[in-house]
Amino acid sequence: MFDTAERRDLAHHSGFTAEVPSTHRLPAAVALWLFALGTVAVSALALISAPPPFQFNLPFTAHLAGLLAGYFVTVMVILMARIPALESGIGADRMARWHGLLGRSLLCFIVIHGVAATLAWSAGQGIPVPRSILDVLGMPGLIAATVATALFFLIGLLSIRAARRRLRYETWHTIHLLTYLAIALSFSHELAGPDLAGFPLIQIVWSCLYTASFALLIRYRVIAPVLLLMRHRLRVERLVDEGQGVVSVILRGRHLSELNAEPGQFFRWRFLSKDSWKAAHPFSLSALPTQNYLRLTVKAVGDGTKIIHSLRPGTWVAAEGPYGAMTERRRTRHGVLLVAGGVGITPMRTLFESLRMGDAPLTLLYRASREEDILFRGELDDIARSRGAQIIYLIGPSSQPRNEITPGNLERLVPDLRHRDVYLCASPGFSEAVKRALFGAGLPRKNLHQEDFAF
């Protein structure tokens, strides 16, 4: 925890996030409309470039699928670019779902393109399919495109939840860097292949689309963290052992109010030590930011997070963000219920301290297996007393009747539950149980706000 002087600094600055910063955000609905318009434009391009008379046949199917696959690649790059307007307006959890859906769609279009093109060549040349495969592989850029396809499928297989859970975060992160190699290998085929060959203006526009998407990626994934590091000069001040494999990392910097970090948001932190610089980890702020200090809290659940527990004071820190849409902006109702499990208390603690409630009811429900697993209990109790808010600690085995997450128990603990906004951050299993109970108790789905930024 912060010492006395830092607590005074926190108290002095805790109001600077009360007014929501005026940052640009792109709402999810607008983003979907832009994506849909792009899809229509690419489909129209396939129609326009089809030889007359138009026929919905194998060549056209291959042409359309290839163009859509190429367009989906640029959209996925933009989603990977961590553009603040998208991350804050849409939310990291929804962005991850979109990315996964686009990835699966991309693989489907790649298969359709390859199969339709091979069968069309076989039919057009009157040759067996095995020979047509060899002919097609001899076309411009096809060997590189085939390698790219194999890489895309490898990444897709390793992104399946069952496989992903067996991988270290650092391994998964490194493998996903192969995505950029796959895109580079496939690009020459896109320009020189039959989908765009002979249309120089379209080739220029296509190249500009790829250039713009990668420019955004470099701007926000490479340049932005460097600029933040130079401006704010974040370093590890010290580590605070919170017990039970959890530490708080106190960062010292300058001009930190310029970050405009809202309670509930997170950053991606890259600790620049020899053992941890390769990967950026997403962690929420666990205290309101001040002009000179930030605090994040980390539980050791893998090799990467264990390394963070051994960081030395003075270690430089590159930050990306702030990201996330689980903020006060999502509120639609008068009262609020915050639900946290374990280390999921980190974003809930900042919201608990900062939400502008007036005379509205504010409740924090905190689930922990044991008393010693509760983080920041002294801070939470102080906040509750100063705000007149309520804390409900659910401690002990979930098999105990009073700890069961059921619609009846939630309604007993929070009688006006269905008329509140609910913010949730917890482990996947506990989150699913809470959501079932909330919806069973009649909470409208639009009143539940959750953001999962796990890999």
Automatic annotation (TrEMBL):
Membrane disposition: Multi-pass membrane protein
Cofactor dependence: FAD
Subcellular localization: Membrane
GO molecular function terms listed in the Swiss-Prot or TrEMBL record: 2 iron, 2 sulfur cluster binding; flavin adenine dinucleotide binding; metal ion binding; oxidoreductase activity
A matching Pfam family: NAD_binding_1
Chain ranges of the FAD-binding FR-type domain: 229-329
Protein name in UniProt: Putative ferric reductase
Species of origin: Psychromicrobium silvestre
